[in-house]
Amino acid sequence: MRPTRNGAAAIRLATEDATKIAAQSFEASTTFAQGKAKFKILQAGDVREFEVIVSPTGDQFAVTDTKGNILLQPQPYPPTGPVTVLGTTFELTEGALPNDKFTANLVPSEGDNGNLRKMINIQTAKRMNDNESTIIDLYHNLNTDVGLKMATMTRLTDVARLEKEAAQSRIASISGVNLDEEAANMMKFQQAYMASSRIIQASNDTFNTILALR
């Protein structure tokens, strides 16, 4: 399996229309939370502004709108997975303290561009190689590896060519045969043979002519 072998060849431009980019992100606030729980919006639905409130005992949570109307009856805390309320899905991890409150505001506002900032930060975020390298680091390392392998193969090719030439020279010195000289001699012999055949042919023609005169 080589999943990245043709990865670069498959890269395509998805869109040239900037308006189709979801540059804005959803804001989830933990201003009124004292614990270590994390609150994250996964998908926006019909409800745009709401609050997630942990019970005074810390073992339940409920969802209300900004006016205090209950949108989701008290549920066991921490939840076992993502929670969906009127089409809006959020994630709430463990670690909240009693009476902690998490607020969500999914109303569009100009100048946020949270998603776009996250996309830009991908190039410098260390998320590869166990969070030790960035995508740019991997790209540079790949270029370096390819360059080194190419240079190594070029050197090996040159070495192999020189070894072949040296081996041919050793064979010629041991056998006493020079291939270039033998090729030249062969051409001379061929020319002499052709000249001799023409002389013989001329002699035969002359002899036949004399016989014909008699």
Q: What are the defining features of this structure?
A:
214 residues; alpha+beta; five-stranded antiparallel beta sheet; three-stranded antiparallel beta sheet; 3 helices
Tell me the layout of helices and strands.
Elements: E1 27-32, E2 39-43, E3 49-54, E4 60-64, E5 70-76, E6 83-85, E7 88-92, E8 101-105, H1 114-121, H2 135-175, H3 179-213
Antiparallel strand pairs: 1-8, 2-7, 3-4, 3-8, 4-5, 6-7
Domain Flagellar basal-body/hook protein C-terminal: 173-213
Family: Belongs to the flagella basal body rod proteins family.
GO biological process, one term: bacterial-type flagellum assembly
User: What strand order characterises the main sheet?
Assistant: 1-8-3-4-5
Number of strands: 8
Overall geometric form: rod-shaped
Taken in chain order, the helices and strands follow as EEEEEEEEHHH
How helical, in percent, are the residues? Answer: 25-40%
Give the termini distance in whole angstroms.
91 Å
For the sheet with most strands, the description reads: 5 strands, antiparallel
User: Average pLDDT value?
Assistant: 81
Return the structural class. alpha+beta
Enumerate the spans where pLDDT stays under 50 for 5 or more consecutive residues: none
What's the alpha carbon Rg, rounded to whole Å?
43 Å
Query: Which assembly state applies to the chains in this document?
Result: single chain
Beta-strand percentage range: 15-25%
Overview of the structural elements:
InterPro entries: Flg_bb/hook_C_dom, FlgK. One of its GO terms (biological process) is bacterial-type flagellum assembly. Residues 173-213 form the Flagellar basal-body/hook protein C-terminal domain. Its main location: other. This is Flagellar hook-associated protein 1. The chain has helices at residues 114-121, 135-175, 179-213, and strands at residues 27-32, 39-43, 49-54, 60-64, 70-76, 83-85, 88-92, 101-105. The strands form two sheets. The protein has a five-stranded antiparallel sheet, with no helix packed on it. The longest helix has 41 residues, at 135-175. Among the domains are: 23-109, no CATH class; 137-196. It has three helices and eight strands; from the N terminus they run E-E-E-E-E-E-E-E-H-H-H. By secondary structure, it is α+β, with helices and mostly antiparallel strands.
